[in-house]
Write a structure and sequence with these properties.
By secondary structure, the chain is of the alpha/beta class. The chain has 2 domains: 143 residues, Nucleotidyltransferase, domain 5, CATH 3.30.420; 131 residues. Helix content is 57%, strand content 9%. The chain contains 16 helices and 5 strands. The protein has a 5-stranded mixed sheet with strand order 3-2-1-4-5, with helices on both faces. Helix 7 runs antiparallel to helix 10, helix 7 packs antiparallel against helix 12 and helix 11 packs antiparallel against helix 13. The longest helix is centred in the middle third of the chain and has 24 residues.
Amino acid sequence: MVQHLTIARVAEALAVAWDTANDAVLAEGKRVLIDDPARFDGVQVVGVDEHAWGHTRKGDKYVTVIIDLTGIRDGTGPARLLDMVEGRSKHAFKACLSERPESWRQAVEVVAMDGFTGFKNATAQELPDAVPVMDPFHVVRLAGQALDECRRRVQQAIHGHRGRKGDPFYAARRTLHTGADLLTDKQKDRLTALCADDQHVELEATRGIYQRMIGAYREPNRKQAKILMEQLIASVSGGVPTALTEIVTLGRILKQRAADVLAYFDRPGTSNGSTEGINGRLEHLRGFALGFRNFTNYIARCLLETGGFRPRLHRGLG
């Protein structure tokens, strides 16, 4: 766990069979770390997200990942994995929360999540005093998806086919997602040429909304940033031309979740970015293990890998 070694490497170093090493690691990890009730202490900020642990058609390949983000908000340590439950639904998250003591649930102040309403509803029922926060990563991703969908729609309407090498839309697909303050001269020229055509006005308008959203999150003054986001949500929540179908859809979502989106600006350090980082660690774990078939073993290995146990096993490690 400390050196991120595979079970095969551990078994080879100890000159034992793979099953022997795996059984020993899981048994001791469960006894010393996973079954320790104190690992749930002090949790005030929770992050929740989905994670694909299997890539076959057998069974539910998704799990709900619950992360402790308290250390990120307070600046006292990294995020850590608290638990994983099978499935990605309101009931899966709700069941996980209901298993915790009432005192623990009352101590949770913030829940950072994506746009999935199931997580929000479960939070409202089990953690009524906690503030749901729709984190910037997923809000920006919604705007980015709207931009991509608009680009593909306009491409199809004008050229009658998907983007191909040499098509101006396809060549600018990444440039469209680049922040205005990060554009190179070449990228600026490419966008200027793209927007010069009146047929591309819908794409230009959608990109404008995307850039305004990025600008709001990059604004260093949080009060001003919140005002910018409020203005953006108001501008896309009504009066948008029906031709801009992607902005209409985005505006509907932002209007429904406006309170959750704006809550982020009053609660710094509550982004789900660290949750996405742990998801990446879990992908790496599954990769060097060449996949898992036993869900119980997978949860145990994930907790040992990303549960914040390194300092507890070796006091000299941060």
